[in-house]
Amino acid sequence: MSGKRIQNSLFWKFLLIVQRTVMIVASFAIVIIMSLWAILRYIFHTDMYGMEEVVVMVAFWLYFMANSYAVYEKSHVKADIFPSMLGRRAQNYIKPALYALMFFASVLYSIWSFDTVRFSYIEKPITMALQIPFWVGHLSIFVGFVLSAFYSGVYFIQSLLEAIKTLKDKDYSSGVNEDTFVL
Fold first, then answer.
1. Within a domain: residue 177?
2. Longest distance between any two alpha carbons in the chain, whole Å
């Protein structure tokens, strides 16, 4: 299928490598910081002043990269009880509408998060202890939603092409569908 061509592109693979790297590095960073924090606090009876601010910023990047990665994997939280009760043919017709809804919601959230990044960059709010600019954390929200919009847009186009193909071929079989329904 020509719709799968983008998923075999270097751009697609590069995005996934970047996302996986950010998630792995952020996960390790949080574990290391929290472990050091516990060791310093309970063994050496001292404190890592302001480290919670670093953990929060790193966690922002972890959470929003994981969110967009879940959209890529089609493993994000979904409400699929109704479409799963339908046959493959009906699912092929419903999926484009649901992916379109997800795409437009992600685009809307991307716009809102861009406004948040812009505001925090212009107004320059910073954290109390380490003076970390808020836009560092806010940027992760924007990047996460842009990636979610990208993936859901690709899946919208693919599901639309699949629905059109089903209409043309009148293939109403109930064959195995690799992703029964994913929103």
1. no
2. 72
Phi first, then psi: what are they for 126, rounded to 5°?
-135, 160
Q: How many residues does the chain have?
A: 183
Please tell me the distance from the alpha carbon of residue 141 to that of residue 65, in angstroms, as a whole number: 9
The structural domain count of the chain equals 1
Domain of residue 115 covers 2-169
Kindly indicate the confidence band of residue 168, based on its pLDDT and cuts at 50, 70 and 90. Answer: confident
Return the exposure string of 117-148: e unless at least 16 CB atoms fall within 10 Å of the residue's CB, then b.
beebeeeeeebeeeebebbbbbbbbbbbbbbb
Residue 182 lies in a domain: no
For the entire predicted model, the pTM comes to 0.84
* Rounded-to-integer distance, Cα 172 and Cα 183, Å: 22
